[in-house]
Design a protein that fits this description.
Elements: E1 20-26, H1 30-35, E2 50-56, H2 66-80, E3 84-89, E4 93-94, E5 100-106, E6 111-115, H3 124-140, E7 149-151, H4 154-168, H5 174-177, H6 179-193, H7 196-204, H8 207-229, H9 240-279, H10 282-289, H11 297-314, H12 322-328, H13 330-343
Helix pairs in contact: 4-9, 6-9, 6-11, 7-11, 8-9, 8-11, 9-11, 12-13
């Protein structure tokens, strides 16, 4: 991102002046955690000082025009007597033409909004730090640039934004929320591992049937979690932007849940494999099945058991905590955001 490169010779204010009062307004949870690590930011060349204050609160919703968010940030700047303000949001932003936005700025009012998912989700602290320093430097300059927004490439930007949204959902937080399902799956797997009928079924399955069983079990559990948690987002209206926003939300929810269930599946596989190696003797299994067996066959058995146990433990269970539900779906956090803004 070329626009993030700031020359060390460019200074927004002269030494000896009062520190520039900067407000960082961040969405709750992950954006706030990132913002609190930026309070030590200063100019690239080390001259002068930025007095950075972090305010944790939602300042926009997905259905609003980005200009509304800019207006709210300007109100906060006046209330707190900030010289300039930067908003950090976990929401995807769009311009009037439907293009994905990384940044929207109002140089005259010294206000900017940064969409964190548009950074791609990887090395978020480093990228956010670089972006915020660039924005503050640009807006503190007596003659700011005229560029009001930075857009993402249409095709590549969509996948980058979706990746950022999934990582912003923090799929690893789903694991504690699925502990009952994971415990049930572990119990199912422990019993199935020592069942001779399961040995017979596992030994008769080809690799492609095992792959289908894995995909089907994960897909069914993901589908159940969406239905049970009411995580599917529906458009607010028939507009193109509303439908596109719902597709983004639902796509990120499905990918987040799939990642969370895959983490549980991998953990289940490892535990069941250890259990199988501890309690099973391949020679005994081979004599029962009348077919030579080795320790390598335990990997196939564990693969089949993990798929069956995932299905048996996952169906009927749901996300147990509000934190897990909010982590899984933008639509749930969007509702929380609207409720808070409606009360302000």
């Amino acid at each position: 991102m070329v626009w993030l490169c700031v020359s060390s010779q460019r200074v927004g204010y002269q030494p000896g002046m009062q520190p520039i009062r900067v407000g960082l307004v961040a969405d709750p949870a992950a954006p706030t955690a990132i913002a609190r690590r930026l309070t030590d930011l200063g100019p690239h060349d080390g001259s002068g000082h930025w007095d950075i204050t972090v305010l944790s609160e939602p300042f926009t919703t997905g259905s609003e025009d980005v200009g509304v968010a800019v207006g709210r940030l300007q109100d906060r700047a006046r209330e707190h007597d900030w010289d300039l303000v930067v908003g950090l949001t976990e929401l995807p932003l769009h311009d009037h033409e439907g293009r994905h936005l990384l940044v929207e700025t109002d140089p005259e009012q010294r206000t900017a909004v940064l969409s964190l998912p548009a950074l791609g989700g990887l090395r978020m602290r480093t990228r956010t730090r670089r972006a915020v320093r660039s924005l503050i430097t640009d807006m503190s300059d007596p003659h700011p640039t005229d560029e009001h927004h930075v857009t993402l490439p249409r095709r590549r930007g969509h996948w980058r934004l979706l990746t950022g949204m999934v990582l912003a959902n923090r799929p690893w937080l789903l694991v504690p929320g699925l502990k009952s399902a994971l415990v049930a799956a572990l119990a199912t797997g422990a019993v199935a591992t020592v069942n001779s009928t399961v040995w017979l079924l596992a030994s008769s399955m080809s690799w492609w049937r095992l792959v289908v069983a894995t995909v089907a079990s994960i897909a069914l559990v993901v589908g159940w979690l969406v239905i049970d948690g009411e995580l599917w987002d529906r458009p607010d209206d028939d507009s193109t932007q509303a439908r596109h926003r719902s597709r983004l939300y639902n796509g990120s929810t499905l990918l987040t849940l799939t990642a969370g269930v895959l983490i549980c599946y991998a953990a289940l596989y490892v535990v069941n494999l250890a259990w199988a190696y501890f309690v099973l003797d391949p020679d005994v299994m081979g004599s029962y099945l009348q077919n030579p067996m080795s320790h390598a066959d335990l990997f196939v058995l564990t693969w089949f058991v993990a798929s069956a146990a995932t299905l048996g433990g996952g169906l009927g269970s749901g996300l147990e905590s509000d934190e897990a539900i909010r982590a899984a779906a933008y639509s749930k956090r969007e509702q929380d955001r609207r409720d808070r803004l409606s009360h302000d």
